[in-house]
Every structure is written in structure tokens, then in C-alpha cells.
């Protein structure tokens, strides 16, 4: 089974890494799809986001990384993926993720599998990491060490 895990990963968090590692165990092949969505106002350039993720997943033989600027459903169809992986932090994520999964299914029939984030990461959001940085808070408990190092120098 070939799966994609799409997201902006701006920056990649411990919650993202949790989903990546768990999804890699249940899929034959997992592609982390880093979005280039101009509407999202990403702070980190896409090439840096990819590099940070590459550093984190180098030990996972069945994981690779790609970038895409467009609909996830189009990427999935073009590249013959079997399913989309999405992480859920809690009930607040469910409604929007459910809607997105239904749109993707309607566009090309691709199914979405939801993985609940492990409890210790259920409150982590990339936007909170940026907020903590802006106000001088300690964000290092929410991102992998390589990401924290890069963000300190950003």
C-alpha cells in the first residue's frame, strides 16, 4: 500500500514526526508531501522544510519526500497512491479533516486514513511554535532538535 502524508510542515513538529513514524510502520511506502500553498503564508522556504524532514526520516527506508503545489487529490491520482494519511489531534480537527477527506474521495476516489496523534503531542501545532518564538517562549519541547536548532537561527 502506497500512502501520502500531506501538509505544510512549517515547521515540522514532534506531532508530525509521531504520525510519520507510525504511518511508516503500516504502509509499504510513505511519501511526505510538503505543500507549496501560497495562501498559507509559510515562513520557512519549502527547500528548508524538506531538508529538515529528510534529516528526521533518513532511518526510515520506506519514507520519501516530495513537494507539490496543487490539490492533494491530483497528486495522488497522478502518482497512483492508494491512500492519504492525516493526523488528528482531537475532536477540533475531525470536522475539517472529514470534509477534506470527502472532497478528496469525490475528486478521485482516494481514501483517507486518520491516525490519532499520541496524547503527549495532541496539543502541538506549527502555528503555536511560531507564536512561542515570537514572544520568546520555549518552543524546543514541541519540535525535533534539528528543527529547534534551525529555528533559533532563523
Describe what this molecule looks like in 3D.
This protein is an alpha/beta fold and 154 residues long. Strands 3-2-1-4-5 form a five-stranded parallel β-sheet, with helices on both faces. Helix 3 (72-78) packs across helix 4. It has six helices and five strands, in the order E-H-E-H-E-H-E-H-E-H-H. It starts with a strand and ends with a helix.
Measured between the Cα atoms of the first and last residue, the distance is: 37 Å
**Quaternary structure:** single chain
Give the beta-strand count: 5
- Compressed to H and E, one letter per element, the order equals EHEHEHEHEHH
User: Strand sequence of the main sheet, in spatial order?
Assistant: 3-2-1-4-5
Mean pLDDT: 94
User: How many helical elements?
Assistant: 6
Helical content (DSSP H or I, runs of 4+): 40-55%
Structural class: alpha/beta
What gross morphology would you assign? globular
Instruction: Assess the beta-strand content as a share of residues.
Output: 15-25%
Report low-confidence residues grouped into runs of 5 or more.
Answer: none
Radius of gyration from the alpha-carbon trace, in angstroms: 15 Å
Largest sheet: 5 strands, parallel
Helix and strand topology:
Blueprint: E1 2-7, H1 14-26, E2 29-35, H2 46-57, E3 63-68, H3 72-78, E4 83-88, H4 91-108, E5 111-116, H5 126-134, H6 145-152
Parallel strand pairs: 1-2, 1-4, 2-3, 4-5
Helix pairs in contact: 3-4
Amino acid at each position: 500500500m502506497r500512502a501520502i502524508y500531506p501538509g505544510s510542515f512549517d515547521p515540522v513538529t514532534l506531532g508530525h514526526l509521531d504520525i510519520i513514524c507510525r504511518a511508516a510502520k503500516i504502509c509499504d511506502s510513505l511519501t511526505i508531501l510538503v505543500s507549496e500553498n501560497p495562501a498559507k503564508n509559510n515562513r520557512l522556504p519549502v527547500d528548508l522544510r524538506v531538508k529538515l524532514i529528510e534529516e528526521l526520516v533518513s532511518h526510515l527506508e520506506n519514507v520519501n519526500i516530495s513537494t507539490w503545489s496543487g490539490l492533494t487529490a491530483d497528486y495522488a491520482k497522478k502518482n497512483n497512491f492508494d491512500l492519504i494519511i492525516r493526523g488528528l489531534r482531537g475532536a477540533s480537527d475531525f470536522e475539517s479533516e472529514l470534509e477534506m477527506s470527502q472532497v478528496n474521495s469525490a475528486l478521485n476516489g482516494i481514501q483517507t486514513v486518520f491516525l490519532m496523534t499520541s496524547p503527549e503531542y495532541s496539543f502541538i501545532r506549527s502555528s503555536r511554535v511560531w507564536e512561542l518564538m515570537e514572544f520568546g517562549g520555549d518552543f524546543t519541547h514541541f519540535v525535533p532538535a534539528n528543527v529547534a536548532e534551525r529555528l533559533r537561527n532563523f
